[in-house]
Amino acid sequence: MKPRQLPQAVLSRWLDLNERVENLEQEALAAEAEVARLRSLLSSRNANPINLGEINAAKASFDATFTAAQLKRSRASAQGKLLGSVKAWIEELPPNTRLVLVHAPIEGASLAEVRGELAALRSDLSKLRGNPPASLDVHKRIESYVSELAYAARPMVRGFHNGGTLDVRWPMDVSANRQNGNAFDHGQCNALLLFAALMPAELSDLIFKAISDAQPLSAQQHSERMLQLNARVNDLSYIEAALVERASGEHSVESAPHCILGVRVGGEIAEGDAAA
User: Fold this and answer.
1) What does the pLDDT look like over 173-229, one tens digit per residue?
2) What residue spans define the domains of the chain?
3) Helices 200-214 & 138-152, crossing angle to 10 degrees?
4) Left if phi > 0, otherwise alpha if psi is -120 to 50, otherwise beta: which for 262?
5) pLDDT tens figures, 215-243
6) I want to staple 219 with a disulfide (CB 3.0 to 4.6 A). Which of 30, 111, 119, 133 is the partner?
7) Rounded to an integer, what distance in angstroms lies between the CA atom of residue 84 and that of residue 88?
8) Coil, helix or strand for 251?
C-alpha cells in the first residue's frame, strides 16, 4: 500500500507527521546555518573596530548556539527516522488491507505519566526477554550434567594386580588427564566431583533450586506475563500517540507505526473504534 492510498482519516495523520518532520528539519538547517555563520565570523582575520563587537558577541553565543543546533538536528533525525519506519510499515501492507481507527481514551491522561508507565513496562519486558524460562527438558539436562561430574570423580587406580602396591589417585578437577595422571592427587579430590558421585540427587536439587531462584516463572507463566505486558504497552502506545497528536508534539522513537497512525489492521470493529 502506498501512503496516498490510506483512508482519509489515516492519511491526515500521515500528512501531519510529514509536516512536523519537515518543520523540524528546517529548524535544524537554520540552526546549523547560524553555527556556520558564527564560525565564519570567528575565523575572520578582519577584526577591525567596526566588526569587533559582532565578533565578541559571536564568541559569547557560539557554545549555546552550537549546542542548540545539535539538539535540533538530533530531534529532526530521530523524527525523520521514525517517519521512515512508518512509511515502510505502510508500504508493507497489501493494497486491500482493512484498517480500523483506534480511538484511544485520552481524557484526563497525562503524556508524562503515560510515558513513565511505558518506560517501566518496557524495562520489565527487557528483563523478561533477558531471563527466559527454564527449558522443558531442564531436569534431564541437570541429570546429564551431574552424571558427567560423577563419572569424572572416579579415581585413577594402579597396582591393583596380585602383589602390586595399590595406588589410588583422585581427580583435582573435571579435566584431570587419566592418560598421564595430570591433575590427580593421592590425598585430595575435587569436592564437587565427589558430591556428584556420592549425592547426585542432592546436587541436582541444589542446581534446580538455583534455576528457580533466578527464574521463578514457568514457561507458561513467562509467556502469559510477556503477553500481558505487550498488550498494556500497545494500549498505552495508542494513548501516547493520541496525546502527542493533540499537542502537535513529537512521537517517541519507540512508538509503533500503527500506534502513531492510530489504527489496527483488520479484525472486527471494537466499541469506540471505527472503520478507517
Assistant:
1) 999 999 898 999 999 999 999 999 999 999 999 999 999 999 999 999 999 999 999
2) 1-97, 140-198
3) 140
4) left
5) 999 999 999 999 999 999 999 999 999 99
6) 133
7) 6
8) coil
What gap in Å lies between CA 240 and CA 109, rounded to an integer?
9
Closest CA to 37 of 54, 24, 23: 54
Neighbours of 239 (CB within 10 A): 19
Q: Provide the terminal-to-terminal Cα distance of the chain, rounded to the nearest Å.
A: 14
Q: At which residue does the C-alpha cell 552424571 appear?
A: 147
Dist CA 141 CA 208 (whole Å)? 10
Measured between alpha carbons, how far is residue 220 from residues 135, 143, 217 in Å?
11, 23, 8
What does the DSSP assignment read for 34-90?
A: HHHHHHHHHT-S---TTTHHHHHHHHHHHHHHHHHHHHHHHHHHHHHHHHHHHHHHH
Confirm if 88 and 43 have CB atoms less than 8 A apart. Answer: no
- Look at the pTM and tell me if it is higher than 0.90: no
Cell of 169: 589417585
Q: How does DSSP classify residue 186?
A: S
How far is residue 106's CA from residue 252's CA, in Å, rounded to a whole number?
17
List for the chain the helix, strand, coil content (%; round to 5): 60, 5, 30
Q: Distance between CA atoms of 179 and 57, rounded to whole angstroms?
A: 82
Separation CA 106–CA 239 (nearest Å): 6
Rounded CA-CA distance 75/26 in Å is 12
Strands 184-185 and 274-275: unpaired
